[in-house]
Structure formats: C-alpha cells, structure tokens
Amino acid sequence: MKHRLIALLFLAFVPHLFGQTPSVSPTPAQSAPPEMPRARDFGSSLKRYGKKEPKKTQTKDNSDSDDDVVRVSTDLVVNDVLVTNQKGNVILGLQKDDFVVTEDGTQQTVQMFASGESATVPRSVVLIIQCGGLQGPYMKTSVEAAKVLIDKLAPQDRMAIVTSDLKLRLDFTQDKTLLKKTLDSLVPSDGRKIAFTTCGDPLQTPDARRLDTSYSVRSDEFDTLVAVLNEMFDEQNRQRIVIFQGDGVHGIWLKPDKESPYQVSYSSYDRSGLRYVKDPFSEFGFREIKEAIESSRATIYSVVNGVRFLGLSKKEQLARAKLTLTELNNLYRWNKEREMPDVINYYQYREVDARTAGQTFMFKVAELSGGFTSFIEKPEDAENIYSDIFTVIKNRYVLGYSPTNRKRDGKLRQLTIQVRNHPEFTVTGRKAYSLQ
Predict the structure, then answer these.
(1) Residue 132 domain flag
(2) Residue 48 included in any domain
(3) What is the pLDDT of residue 339?
C-alpha cells in the first residue's frame, strides 16, 4: 500500500532510536585530534532518563542525593541580556550601575559586567548541527555560514561542534583551522547535491524493497541538545552559548508531558508510523529539556532549517505542507505524479503537525534560555542568519553575581533584570535558573 510505504520511508529518518550512549573528553589542546575522552563518553547523562518516575518540576524541593540532578560547581550566576527600546532598537553604552538584578524579589550585587564587544568575559560556544535526514540541501551553505561565525570569535573564545547523531565532533578549542576542518568533514565528500545525507557521507534514496535498519539515520537533535546542556558547560566566568540548528521534527517523538508547548495529534503519530515502532517515544519529554536549560544557564539560539510553519494560519500551513510533500517526492520519486494528490491528501495534516511541533519546540528552548529563533527557509539564507546571531551576541551585556541565597536545593529561581530609571526599555534574557 502506497500510504504504508510512505510511512515506512518516513521512519527511515524520523523515529527515535534508543540505547546509544556516546562520549566525553577534557578540553583538547588547540591542535589536538577531535577524538578525546569527553567525545567517547558524550551523551552518557541521558542514561538517567526513563529509569525513575519523572522528578517534580524545580519549583519544588529536590534532594541533594537525587541522581537525576545536574550539578553545578559554582555559585557565580552569569547572564547575558539584550536591551532594546520601544522601537526595537538595541541600546548600547550602558554600565554596570545601570542594571538592577533581583532574584526571587531580592536585589543582587552585580560583580561581573561586560558588554558583548568586551574581551572581559570569554565565550564558550557549542554549535549543534543537524546533518542527518533531509538536511542535505542546507549542509554546504550552513557550514560556510558557520565558518563566518568562527572568524568572528575573539581570541579568548572557545567553540565545540556537536552533530545531531549524538556525537561530539570537536571539543572546545580556540583553533579556528581545526574548527573549519571539522565542519568541512560534515559535508558529503563526493560533492554531489544529495538531499538525504548522514553526517559527512551521502546516503542514497532508501530502496523500498529493503526497509531495514541499515537505512535508519539517527537524527536526535533534542537528545543531543540535552546532552550538551548537561555535560558541556562546567566553567565559571564564561558566557555560555548554544547555536542549535535543525528542523526540530524529531520533537514529535518526545515523551508527551504537561510541559510540552505543542500537543501532537494521535493521527499524526499514526501516519508517521507509530504502529510499526515498539516504544516510539523518547525516554524524556519537554519537562526534562526545560530542567536542563534551567540548570545549564546557557543561552540558546535556535536556527530552524526548512519552510516556516510556526505562527501561520492553518490555511497557509496546509498550502506549505502540500508544497513540502511535493518537493520531497521530486527529490525521492517515491510516488508517481498521478498518485501525489492522494498522498498529499493523506499526509498533509501530519506534515503540518510535525513541522509546527518541531518549530515550536525549537522556538521554546530559545525563549526559555533568553535567546531567539531564526529560520533558514532557503539555503542561501544561512550566511545572513549566522551574521545576525553574532551581531546580537556582541550587542548583549554580560552580568554576573553571587546569589544571596546560597542553598543548592535545585529550586527554580526567578530572575528580573531591569535598566535603572528606564522602565520603557525591554531586557531580553533568561528569566529563571536553578542552582544544584
């Protein structure tokens, strides 16, 4: 049946696979090879999920002995914020005394301060790049755009590269040549324009007669994001930044929970091949992603690849779903042209659900962390997107303080940052965190 074939093909790159526990390494020397101890252990923190009852949200007490808590070894809280006026223009030139920081209603003393242009507070940047599934058309231009970002890093900044197959490709380094070489390794080596690709190697269109696990590509961007937040940031006095690039579609396989910003319909699960997969959902849901964001205190910039569905009317979403399905068929030739009206009619609502869910999840993780979301709807958009992200990063202010509440109880703490005597200014940044 044609519909079942499409569902199975969709499973070749969307479903959640479990049990993979990759790697971790001390920070490498500038010219060190990518494979280091942290790379071998990266992703090991994911093993804690699914073994216990979900722990309560961090607004409530968590025991210091709870194995599921991510520990932070410093009391210094570092936040980066963007200040804009009522017209949306960025406000520059502010000083430390211009900011008022309160935590749970108690004013804090700002001890560290720097503008984004300043060399005072170095950055630790992690680039998460989705390179499996249908990311082929975006890979080359995205890699070239990321190189522009690398060139703009200050000498004291460090960057790491992680791919959505849950692999730490390169640990934190200041070696820009090594960073670029690592990015180049993610582009299919034969130079052909391939739509369906693994991380660095082309994967031809799956043979419909051999739908086995050899065609399955792990593209677990949310597993990878949680592993990064749990494991990559362990130094104080550094600005923590994650650039999270992908389509977010794997978000439909997150374990459903009350924290989820988007509820996927069962019909969408069913038409995505739910009936063919045992235990299709991830070991964790959006609740655990939110907790990892709160514990890490990193700012996330989501970069969504693909046609935008988020925020559009249902009519426009359906029109875009039809276009997307048609373009996929043109790439894969899964169905004859005369069959496409039936295929589109059957799958258009699932496409809307999956794309909107993924984009909603990516938007929400950025919002919770104080970052923002951009869309690469066409590959040529990538360079401007990365340039804009760096412009925002360097226009943000970095504020650090030691909280008056020294308890490491895992409770969620509410942050308020304002510009003194300027209630009309908008301060965009993290609104909550937890100290473990």
Answers:
(1) yes
(2) yes
(3) 76
Residue 367 lies in a domain: yes
Q: Would you say the C-alpha torsion 180, 185, 191, 197 has a positive or negative sign? A: negative
Q: How many domains does the chain have?
A: 1
Note down the domain range covering 388. Answer: 2-61+118-395
Q: How many CA atoms lie within 13 A of 135 on its CB side?
A: 37
Decide if 55 is inside a domain.
Answer: yes
Sheet with 432-434, strands from edge to edge, namely: 106-108, 99-103, 412-419, 432-434
Cβ neighbours, 10 Å, residue 435: 22
| Cβ partners under 8 Å of residue 171, min gap 6 | 25, 26, 27, 28, 34, 36, 38, 39, 160
Number of other residues whose CB lies within 10 A of the CB of residue 424: 7
Least Cα distance to 249 among 332, 168, 309, 186 occurs for: 309
Q: Which residues contact 163 (CB under 8 A, 6 or more apart)?
A: 128, 129, 130, 131, 132, 169, 186, 199, 224
Q: What are the pLDDT digits (tens) for 50-75?
A: 754 444 444 444 433 333 333 344 57
**Which of 79, 28, 29 is CA-nearest to residue 236?**
79
Closest CA to 79 of 34, 116, 132: 116
Measure the N-to-C terminal CA separation of the chain; round to a whole number of Å. 53
Show the DSSP H helices in 243-339 as ranges: 266-271, 286-296, 314-332
Give counts: helices (H), strands (E), the chain.
10, 14
| Residue pLDDT, tens place only, 147-164 | 988 998 989 999 999 998
Q: What CATH number should be reported for the domain holding residue 16?
A: 3.40.50.410
